[in-house]
Every structure is written in structure tokens, then in C-alpha cells.
Amino acid sequence: MSPTVLITGASRGIGLAATEFILADGAKIIALQRTVTPALEALSAKYPGAVQIVKGDFTNAKDVSSAIALADSLDAVVLNAAVNLPYGTIATIPLDGYRGIFEVNLFAVVQFLQLALPKLRKAKGKVVLISSAAGEVGVKGIGAYGASKAALNQLNRTLAVEEPEITTISFHPGPVKTDMADTMQREGKDQMDPTVADALTASLIEADIPGRGIRNLVLRAGADYTGKYLHYDDPLVTSL
Ligand SMILES: NC(=O)c1ccc[n+]([C@@H]2O[C@H](COP(=O)([O-])OP(=O)(O)OC[C@H]3O[C@@H](n4cnc5c(N)ncnc54)[C@H](OP(=O)(O)O)[C@@H]3O)[C@@H](O)[C@H]2O)c1
């Protein structure tokens, strides 16, 4: 039987690309995001009966529960939805901005897992958390986003030891040409070291590269991957 994969943030960017690769491999998708874009609708039309779209907010427990309820067997989840605004240094960022980033990038992930764990345990399922290298190094102006991703990586390590029946992996998709990267160039550059922002923009890759990597991890990685934090270009990802 085709596995069912629940993905958050499939309306655009990396989530949309991953959804396309997962569908092409014959899996079914439940997609949760606030916007139903023409691109997501087109994928749903291309794979009739394989896509269930839930228009909802990842931070809202009711919306998350509705999406989880659609799965007979929850074989895998890709927790991709995230935000990177506002930018700012520790000295300048409003505390509510820090909280807003953690609300989506960390607390919504914990809430999702609490709601999904019974089904994930039953399916001996897989969790792929979309992280970022911004959680590994200090980068001026994007510290709140980076801290949320560093915490996400720790959540991954904790989940691996607490839930041995589940395979959990944290994944850095690379610097990717998406709306999030545009926002960094447009709104983050003033808060960042502009040379760092320009270097990141110059190194952007297409979303199909991490999209393929996410498909590999979600559908092909073994239980021995649990607890790992992997970059998009790691042979452990690309060779699957
Ligand atoms: N792009 C990069 O260079 C880069 C680098 C490292 C890591 N990442 C990570 O990769 C992942 C995807 O990033 P991206 O670049 O594809 O970002 P993006 O283009 O901004 O897309 C973000 C996705 O998340 C969804 N989303 C955001 N808030 C949501 C909420 N409250 N509820 C439901 N869905 C929500 C958006 O859908 P709606 O707006 O329709 O809800 C959208 O589908 C993120 O975890 C990001 O941190 C990206």
C-alpha cells in the first residue's frame, strides 16, 4: 500500500518541491498550510486521489488535528513550515518577534508531535524536521531564527531517544531560492552583515535539490538514521 506523508508548508518553496517528489514516488500526501496556491492545486490535479489539502495554520491545534485525522496510517511527517521574520540583533529585536518565530518554528512542532505521536508509533513512522545551518553558527541579525532551528535539532535528538519506534531526522535544505530567501535579501540585509547576506544570495540553489533530499529521507532512509542532523549535500542523503 502507498505510504501516507503529512507535510506542512506545501504551498510554495521547499515544501512544494518535496511534495512533488514524494507524489512522483507513489506516496499519498496530506498538505497543511494557510494558503492553497495554484501550484499546489496543480499537483493535486496531476495526482488524482493522492493529495488531501488542509487549509490551516500549523500553530492551531484544531487545524493540525484535522490534518492528522485524515491519515488512516501516518507513515511519515515532514515538518517544513517555518518563518524567519523579524530580523534583528539581540539588542534590537522586540521580544514578541523572538516569541513569534519560536511559536511557529518550535512550539508548533512540539504541539504537532504531541498530537501525532500515537499514530506515528502505530505506523512505526518517520519524522523529518526541516532545520537550517543558521542553527549551527552565529549570524548577525538572524539569531532568533537560528536559535529556533538549534532548538529544533535538540528536539530531534530528544525524540530519537524517547521514541525508539519512530525514525526522526533533522535536515538542512541548503540556501534555497524561495520566498524566505527573498525576504532575507529584502528585509534582513539591514540587520545582517550585508556581505553575508549577499554571499548567501549568490549561493542559492533550486528547491528541487532539497526537495529530492526530503523525498529520499522520508521514503527511503532506514531506522539507523534516527537522531541524525543531515545537510542536503551529505552522501547519506543524496545516495539514497
Ligand atoms: N530558503 C532557504 O534558504 C532555507 C534555508 C535553510 C532552511 N530553510 C527551511 O526550509 C523550510 C522551508 O522554507 P522555504 O524557504 O520553502 O520557505 P517559504 O518559501 O517561506 O515557505 C514557507 C512555507 O511554510 C508555510 N507556513 C509558514 N507559516 C505557516 C503556518 N503558521 N501554518 C502553516 N503553514 C505555514 C507557508 O505556507 P502558507 O504561507 O501558505 O501558510 C509556506 O508553504 C523552513 O523550515 C525553513 O526554515 C530554508
Automatic annotation (TrEMBL):
Q: Which family does it belong to?
A: Belongs to the short-chain dehydrogenases/reductases (SDR) family.
Keyword set includes Endoplasmic reticulum: no
| Record lineage | Eukaryota, Fungi, Dikarya, Basidiomycota, Agaricomycotina
Taxonomically, the superkingdom here is Eukaryota
Write the signal peptide boundaries. Answer: none
- Which part of the chain is the Ketoreductase domain? 3-179
Q: Per its UniProt record, what PROSITE patterns does this chain match?
A: ADH_SHORT
User: Which UniProt keyword terms apply here?
Assistant: NADP, Oxidoreductase
Coiled coil (UniProt feature) = none
Give any Pfam family that matches: adh_short
Gene Ontology MF, one: oxidoreductase activity, acting on the CH-OH group of donors, NAD or NADP as acceptor
Stored InterPro entries: KR_dom (IPR057326), NAD(P)-bd_dom_sf (IPR036291), Sc_DH/Rdtase_CS (IPR020904), SDR_fam (IPR002347)
| Membrane keyword on record | no
Write the protein's name: NAD(P)-binding protein
